[in-house]
Amino acid sequence: MGDKMDCIFCKIVNGEIPSYTLYEDDIVKVFLDVNPDTNGHTLIVPKKHYTDLFDIDDNTLMHIMNTAKKINQLLSDKLHTDGLTLVQNNGLKQEVKHFHLHLKPQYKNEGKLLSVEEIYKKING
Ligand code: 5GP
Ligand code: ZN
User: Fold this and answer.
1) Which of 31, 34, 67, 102 has the fewest CB atoms within 10 Å, i.e. the most exposed one?
2) Domain 4-124: CATH superfamily, name plus number
3) Which residues line ligand 1 (CB under 6 A)?
């Protein structure tokens, strides 16, 4: 299991590592994935360190799903997305051992992949 001291998402949550943050509250931080699969690829991360789905508590999980609905509206409004794919890896395919939900927007007409900075500007412009 990952050591919280070395956890990259704990460092993003506490501001030690910068991120393009779209939203945060007491429970979650929401920021753009540094290596996006699609334009607007976003991660929802609980501020408290939970390793994975089998570690996280139900209230936090529900809050993350409700946050996904809110962020979908933002991505739809700002990036004109046509759909949303949720991915959440545990174990083998999980690179960062701090629970996170991937939000991958889908598009009828997929344009070229823009830089994370450009996407951030579109969302906050
Ligand atoms: P996993 O495979 O664990 O589900 O996905 C981890 C995700 O975290 C990857 O999509 C990767 O691009 C993203 N990621 C890793 N390090 C950082 C970082 O320092 N900042 C941001 N914004 N995303 C990161
Ligand atoms: Zn962590």
Assistant:
1) 34
2) HIT-like (3.30.428.10)
3) 8, 17, 19, 31-35, 89, 93-96
Q: Which of 43, 45, 102 to mutate to test the pocket of ligand 1 (most atoms within 8 A of CB)?
A: 43
Q: Which ligand number lies closest to the CA of residue 31?
A: 1
Please tell me the distance from the alpha carbon of residue 20 to that of residue 91, in angstroms, as a whole number.
Answer: 26
pLDDT tens for the chain, 125 residues long, are 345 779 999 999 999 999 999 999 999 999 999 999 999 999 999 999 999 999 999 999 999 999 999 999 999 999 999 999 999 999 999 999 999 999 999 999 988 999 999 999 999 98
Sheet containing 21-24, strands listed edge to edge, beginning at the edge strand earlier in sequence: 21-24, 28-32, 42-46, 101-106, 83-87
Q: Whose CA is nearest to atom 20 of ligand 1?
A: 34
